């Protein structure tokens, strides 16, 4: 097995300060009290009704966001993930990973580089950003990377995952005869070469995946849709498979920058461009994943101080790191 762990991954650290200390500082600051107040239930009810009427509103906002940042310069390669989730480096031959909300490929590329045995199936709600991801991976002068990268269009929290990932009989674990699950819509979602490689693996589907990465994706999903979205991930993961989670944590610097009128729920905010962001506590993440049937393997806050060299300011960033397993 060929393994290459970049220097950036080796230097990564995640405990620059204690989350409890930051929490106390935020709660003692009168100017930040609007972040701590309960969200008005009537306003929240109106928001939920609006979302039911326009289920694709959130994905449309992200499509426009990716269109504005289609150059790919907005996202940096997430090489630290190889250290945070070493299973991605040590996994066996022909391992399958599903990257949910892949963006321009900033998560997929370091994983493909780090392990030549892993195949990455990457989805996003934006067709335009998927093209950028193909270009991003294709720009690397290694044919094996392109052969192991399978991007496809999917809005997992609205439509669910396509059946070629795990057909009904596989999801139910019933010993039924395999059948052809590919449909015309599936052909539109994945290019013909990828489809041919998939169909060689199995006559009905790829038989679920060994790993799933949810990296700064779940926070963009409306809170009430999160349980369904996580259950979708659970359904296409093999028994014993791992889901790797990383997202915005409670009291992260970006949360504290939102104005009171940008709140659309408790710990949930909407930017001026229509994209939303939720900020997770450890307990919220635990309840969501255990409620879907997962087993908790790792769960903690990552607290990192970064410096804006241009402004000379120190920024306190908070992310939630999680690792969850589907029971055997």
UniProtKB/TrEMBL annotation:
Residues 46-57 have a biased composition (Acidic residues). Pfam families: Methyltransf_23. It is an enzyme of class 2 (transferase). Gene3D superfamilies: Vaccinia Virus protein VP39. One of its GO terms (biological process) is methylation. GO terms for molecular function: RNA methyltransferase activity; S-adenosylmethionine-dependent methyltransferase activity. Its EC number is 2.1.1.-. It comes from the Eukaryota. Keywords: Methyltransferase, Transferase. Residues 36-64 are annotated as: Disordered. Belongs to the methyltransferase superfamily. METL family. S-adenosyl-L-methionine-dependent methyltransferase. This is tRNA N(3)-methylcytidine methyltransferase.
